[in-house]
Amino acid sequence: MNTPELREKCAWQLSAAAARASKLNVFAGLDGFVDEIIHAVDKRDNAESFQRVPTISKLAERITAAAGKSTNIELVTQRTKLGGNGPILANALASFGLKVMYLGALGYPNIHPVFSSFGKRAEIYSIAEPGHTDALEFEDGKVMLGKSIQLNEVNWANIQERFGREKFAAQFSKADLVAFVNWTMIPYMTEIWEGLQRELCPTLTGPRRLMFFDLADPEKRLLNDISRALEYVVRFQEHFDVILGLNEKEAFELSKVLGIGPRPATPEGLSELAREIVRVLDIATLVIHPVRYALAASSGSVDLVEGPFVANPLITTGAGDHFNSGFCLGKLLGLDNQLSVLTGVTTSGYYVRSAKSPSIPELVEMLRNWPTS
Q1: Over the stretch 338-361, which tens digit does the pLDDT of each residue have?
Q2: What does the DSSP 8-state code read for residue 179?
Q3: 3-16 pLDDT, tens per residue?
């Protein structure tokens, strides 16, 4: 599922196609968050150091024990960074050298300073204030505590008034990749998609292009809302080659919405589930990215590739978005699904080890010097 020969093939194809990256256009949106990466204190050694709560289950035990009583849990911010699925995805794509235009909730009327470095890599516009996320990171995952009422301002009327209908239409019609992510946190995203399909899609001409979606943990949304959103995602397939990205949890949630029977949480079970979701939705590609591997399904075929797993990552918030950016890069450069998945897990692996988005040469270097721990 991941051999030195496969990695060398991927490195060679990325190197050969890298010069084309700067000629490719990306139009992405529509969220935006200020992320605080946080550790929860288990035991404090002194004023300067502490032992963090290692796992989500340990934190859950402490909270459960406080029921009917009270407790105090100290939170320590490790870093503050740009957040939101859209900005993280778009920033990573820009780091590859792609020409990126981003529209979202980055501060209004003025861009929030946390997005300043992003603005140096990409052309960015904002129509709303960003949300705020307290991202509690643990060895076995993360708990994202979000404040997102600001994203109510992200709607079709404000896009047209504060950004411009013609400007939006121009980007929507020419971008090699259009990416709309974080549907769950944007209450009016489905209405935006409806407006695009009603007003802009009928005018599209030229070759088919890529369109990427990430619903982003839809558990809190009503089943009817999720079903309606999926209907619009599927309708875009008429005009674009649609890619839907999911993590493992989201894949099982969508299977319930679609009425697909349960599958085991194994590589074989997820592969079978991915094949069935693609069949039911009839989209070009579905990608699912658990922690240790990822897979892509298209037209009944599934390609699964193991990633460079690390037991103690420097950062995990944004790892999935980096996988998605790498997969989309591969598809934009003409790589097949298997090599695009490998590009995705390499991008994510680089990011969780360094807390930085890689360039294409850095991806190639990692592929040729694959980490073993």
Answers
A1: 999 999 999 999 999 999 999 999
A2: E
A3: 999 999 999 999 99
Contact predicate 89/321, CB 8 Å? yes
pTM for the full model?
A: 0.91
Q: Report DSSP state, residue 160.
A: I
Q: Is the dihedral of CA 224, 225, 230, 235 positive or negative?
A: positive
Where in the chain are the domains? 4-39+82-368
Q: Residue 106 gets which letter from DSSP?
A: S
Which ranges of the chain would DSSP assign to H, the alpha helix? 4-17, 56-65, 85-95, 116-121, 156-158, 165-174, 189-199, 223-235, 248-257, 267-281, 319-332, 337-354, 360-368
Q: Give the whole-angstrom CA distance, residue 174 versus residue 172.
A: 6
Fold of 4-39+82-368: UDP-N-acetylmuramoyl-L-alanine:D-glutamate ligase (3.40.1190)
Compute how many other C-beta atoms are within 10 angstroms of the C-beta atom of residue 45: 9
